[in-house]
Amino acid sequence: MPINCEFNLSRAAAIYYNGEQISGSLTVTVDGKKSFKLEGVSVTLHGVSTVHWRESLRGPPEIEHNDSTGNLECPKVDYNGSKVHINETKKLNEVLQLENGTFRLGDFNFQLPENLPATCRLPFGNVEYVLKVVLERRGTHNKCFQQRLVIRKCVELADLKPQYMETANMGLTLPRSVFVPGQSVSYEICSKDGVQDFLTRLCKKISYTSQQPSAKTKNVTQVLSESSELNGNLRLPLTAPIMSHSDQLDPIQISYYIETFNSLNAPIKVPIFVATVAPPVNSQTESSQLCFVNMALSQSELLGPINQFLANSCSREIDALALSKHCERERIKLLKGPKRKKSYVHLALQYFYKKVLT
Predict the structure, then answer these.
(1) Cα Rg for the chain, rounded, in angstroms?
(2) Does residue 143 contact residue 3 with C-beta atoms inside 8 Å?
(3) Are 266 and 306 members of one domain?
(4) CA 259 to chain CA centroid, nearest Å
């Protein structure tokens, strides 16, 4: 019997900040001739961080015999870790008898803690939050639906003091230490020995910590921007995730720093802070530029359909089939119609990116 559940959240998009309240209601639609009996309805707010990567085991090489038929592969080990940040369940209804039509199941609300990590998707780990509804039935499997949530961490830092670090041969100055995604990081290099050949890089460092089969940390450093000028700007991407709190022992830790070096001297590293709010500053070396906290979680999602975050759209049943290629072609055909709504702009950008830029 076809049945669908709709999440009616109190805001247009399912995007929240730490400390806010998630509230809304549930509506179920039954399409069939027979009645639909429920033993109960529950809704759960679940948030978890997970990490996973694979490494080759170091050991003596295996000896291939003359009668061996397969290719020898170096044995590998999987490192995994997880941490549940929130898992709250609320019961909405007891026994219900649903007929054909649309019915309101009830209201719900959840309070988000202040110390939740932000939603992110990374190469070796994720932080995800979902609302999950379970329609309990007797004698058969339960119906489960879920709504993806995006939790943003509000980090406001007002300390805009200049950052300075030096060695015997060079010095690195930053007019400020707090930035938001999309801003330019201005810097100035002072050479004390006359050497002018410097390379300055803006780096992001992500630390993944596993629990099984043993506790281990994998550090991944990515160069976001670089420059060979003595006075320059390094662009912080719009999709840069917000930094992690160093005092929280989460499986995923994110930090940023500026480093400068040359072939003769060891690098200088100056940490910077990527937050959601960074007040503007008047400086001769830094121009005021607009920026914002981007709602996409990765570079690919910048060109994705925006309605994936809409709160009042119908949810998909867990384990349901994805859209077929035919459905994808139908969505592209909408661009050729006389009416062009706002959501079609995202489809056009996605189509242009796939067909022209790649």
Answers:
(1) 26
(2) yes
(3) no
(4) 25
Helix (H, G, I), strand (E, B) or coil at 264: coil
Query: 19 versus 296: which is more confidently predicted?
Result: 19
Examine the domain organization and report whether 38 and 87 are in the same domain: yes
> What pLDDT digit, counting tens, does each position of 245-301 carry?
767 788 999 999 999 988 877 888 999 888 877 655 554 444 444 444 444 444 444
Q: For residue 116, count other CB atoms closer than 10 A to its CB.
A: 21
User: What domain range includes position 352?
Assistant: 325-358
Secondary structure class of 194 (helix, strand, coil):
coil
Q: Does some domain include residue 288?
A: no
Residue 182 lies in a domain: yes
Same domain, 229 and 119: no
| CATH assignment of the domain containing 192 | 2.60.40.640
Q: Side chain identity at 54, as an amino acid letter?
A: R
Q: How is residue 41 written in tokens?
A: 């309805």
The C-alpha torsion from 146 through 152 and 153 to 156, rounded to 10°, is -160
Looking at the fold, whether 208 and 97 belong to one and the same domain comes out as no
Q: Could you give the number of structural domains in the chain? A: 3
Query: Which of 160-164, 275-279, 338-342 comes out lowest in average pLDDT?
Result: 338-342
Distances (CA, A) of 342 to 13, 69, 86, 210, 308: 15, 59, 35, 43, 14
Same domain? 45 vs 185: no
- Report how far residue 228's alpha carbon sits from residue 195's, in angstroms, rounded to the nearest whole number: 12
Residue 103 has pLDDT above 50, yes or no: yes
d(CA 326, CA 105): 34
Distance between CA atoms of 300 and 304, rounded to whole angstroms? 7
Q: Are residues 21 and 94 in the same domain?
A: yes
Provide the token pair at 180: 């938001």
* In a domain? residue 312: yes
Greatest alpha-carbon pair distance for the chain in Å reads 86
